[in-house]
Amino acid sequence: MVDVRENWRVALLVVFILIAGFALLSPTLAADDGTAGSDVAATSSVTNLQYGLELSGGTRVRAPLVGVTAEDVSFGTDSTRAVEQAVADELENAGPADVIARTGVPAGQQSSAQAQSETTTTVEVTAENVTTDELTAALDATGYATEETEVRDGVTDATRQEVVRILQNKINEAGLSGGTVQQVTTAQGENYVLVEVPNQDASSVRELVSERGTVVIEAYYPTGNGSYARDVVLQQEDFQSIGTAQEGRNGGAYVPVTVSEPVAPEFQQSMIDTGLAQQGGTRCVYQQDRNNTEPCLLLVVNDEVTNAFGMSPGLADSLRSGAWEQDPVFQLQTTNVSEAQDVAINLRAGALPAQLDFSQDSGGTVSYISPSQGADFRINSLITGIIAVLAVSGVVFVRYSDVRVAAPMVVTALSEVVILLGFAAGIGYPLDLSVIAGFIAVIGTGVDDLIIIADEVMAEGEINSRRVFQSRFRKAFWVIGAAAATTIIAMSPLAILSLGDLQGFAIFTILGVLVGVLITRPAYGDILRSLTTIDR
Known about the structure:
- Strands 6-7-1-16 form a four-stranded antiparallel β-sheet. It has a four-stranded antiparallel β-sheet with strand order 3-4-2-5, covered by helices on one side. It has a four-stranded antiparallel β-sheet with strand order 9-8-13-14.
- Helix 1 packs across helix 12 and helix 6 (157-173) packs antiparallel against helix 10.
- The radius of gyration is 31 Å and the shape is elongated.
- It has 15 helices and 16 strands.
- The protein is 47% helix and 17% strand.
- The protein has four domains: 8-57 and 370-532, Up-down Bundle (Multidrug efflux transporter AcrB transmembrane fold); 66-154, Alpha-Beta Plaits, CATH 3.30.70; 170-211 and 354-367, no CATH class; 215-337, Gyrase A, domain 2 (2-Layer Sandwich), CATH 3.30.1360.
- The chain is α+β, with helices and mostly antiparallel strands.
- Strand 8 (215-222) and strand 9 (228-234) form a beta hairpin.
């Protein structure tokens, strides 16, 4: 009868294998099937494993951000808003929305260690066709330049992080489950934004990530002398909450919005001043080049008027009486649900502070992997894994010619892969080719360690007692422990830094080493002791 106390390491391995099997196969952990926001094509139909772009098909976008940055700028007593306006006035191809002034932020080209201890005052211009020379001239003209001021291409790390956050929000709001956005840095120090969306075509993904998504509400009203004026009355940050797109009762669609309390009184007064809240409301017949309408509210997306609408008598009465600001809610009308969804996405995600640069010179790329090609990659990965297992098994059996030593070695090595697959399924980590490469590396390094254990234990012939076995096993374990520490140290920078595909490889290689040292290698030692020790 097996003594569990003597073989608790084997019992621990079995427990981890059972947990991994539950994570892989349990329907309770499976992704939602067919619901909004799920991505069935990116999930295995047999297990709970999720596949990344390379194994499921989809679109990958990698591009730098448009912009030029000046560091070590002196603002004097001016506010950042005043600086942005002043610099924009000196640039022909940029407006205030294209200029970002920041104080006390990490410099964009510094290393992580430097960025934590050194800060700089920066001015960024994220409009296209603005050069470093033009920004230098603008700073000289406004008096913000200093002797230490340096102007370079690119944007700051703060802007890149904001772009990553907003793009991830836009992808989530669009229901593109499995889509990821991250910063990546090349060996030459070039910074890119990497977007991966499984099971989506290139044109739709590029369109989604290319739009800056600026949405404002403007009042369009007659001035009394035959002309019309347009004033911005609400910006994205003025909304407290954004509802979901809904179909209207009489056709069209709308997005219910709530204006934040501090802004509500000012908006209410602007509706009265522009005549939108007049008795009986207004009927809008806005046309781009014709001034023949009552006051209108314009929905302006990316500097283009997408919708124009008047005001209902009930809302107008509420605004005039002052009651509306107590419950500042109204509806943004659109012609169809699709337009309403686009408006809601842009409002929730926010405006991109900088656009992605897809020009040929910038190194930006858009690649598409078809679902059929992704399926081929999955099959080829499986075949490669089987070949690796068979090759390792053959070498081990040839080396030892002893089933007692070789068979547990192969089973133990494969158990590491099962545990890692269970971990990936449990946390929903998408498998890609780099992760598969990590699994193959785990098999190789794992068997190497097990061979070290077997050689050390079997080197001096038969093992007469447990004490002798434990002495030999400890010597071997010190060797594999040192090797594991070396591997972890070597892989840690790849796992921490944003280096794209290398990150997944490094993460699962480190996890495999930890699982081996803490769980599978000790379990193999117990199995080998039970099978080879004369005095059991």
